[in-house]
């Protein structure tokens, strides 16, 4: 991965552990973006067919990358728009189960409507608590982030498969913004009915692009009224024949933004998602061991076997300022400081942070 690190100029400024806020851009993506805009500068409307092909390729590659039928993929500017569009097509009489303190764009979208909502508290045994709540409250919809934004808590993916098998009628909606791009993932066999994500974090694609993926069940049971000329592929005759996923694309899409997503997917594939998964799991394990040794993690994180690359360490403002002063790029979240490790990070980054934390105690 050391060769890969050279593509990310921001890594030369210090220890970049803020992918959970923004995934850094990299040299080859910038080259592609500049060439894209230069083509528009020189050729104007002659680029129309090429841009339409970029959008089509992106939709197909998202489906291929996550194993989802391309016709079940919608390209959206961000997860929040996608989720709010979806919820306009779900009966508000449904009983919904959410996580306490989940990302606001997940919970607010339901809370701002008239759904019947229950909550499950984050904890080491959350999977058992979810199943108990589903049975007790006769839940119709479970919605949550695969990775929690505050502390990196990772839901057990095998549990989601089990849950769908045990409760096939429960609609499972997941936000993958803090997850997608960190490890290999098979949507078709995940048990999840809807997976959406903004792609500017771990997928390294810059702002303004994301996606929604749908199971066949969602398409059969939900009805979304959003429409526009782009949804009909610019064909008047298609007005009454717009497929479900295209209803999330009513207007024109940016070939620069979604082309960036397409480029980054290919970039990650060229590195190898198996290698990225292995590196991220290695960094997660090493970081967890180090932070446990320093007594900086909440107990429900300590007790879990699996975890993401995001950690919230229990330190105060003074320690945060010392990290920043030593060129560690991170963020204050909740009652601590959030650090996020991605494949371009290495053990030296972790050791630098641990050294600072030891001297700051």
Report on the architecture of this protein.
The structure is a single chain. The chain has 361 residues and is an alpha/beta fold. It folds into two domains: 2-24 and 273-360, Alpha-Beta Complex (Aspartate Aminotransferase, domain 1), CATH 3.90.1150.10; 32-270, Type I PLP-dependent aspartate aminotransferase-like (Major domain) (Aspartate Aminotransferase, domain 2, 3-Layer(aba) Sandwich), CATH 3.40.640.10. It has 13 helices and twelve strands. The strands form three sheets. A seven-stranded mixed β-sheet has the order 2-8-7-6-5-3-4, sandwiched between helices. Helix 2 (27-43) runs antiparallel to helix 9 (255-271). The mean pLDDT is 96.
Structure summarized in a few sentences:
By secondary structure, the chain is of the alpha/beta class. The chain is built from 13 helices and twelve strands. It has two domains: 2-24 and 273-360, Aspartate Aminotransferase, domain 1, CATH 3.90.1150.10; 32-270, Type I PLP-dependent aspartate aminotransferase-like (Major domain) (Aspartate Aminotransferase, domain 2), CATH 3.40.640.10.
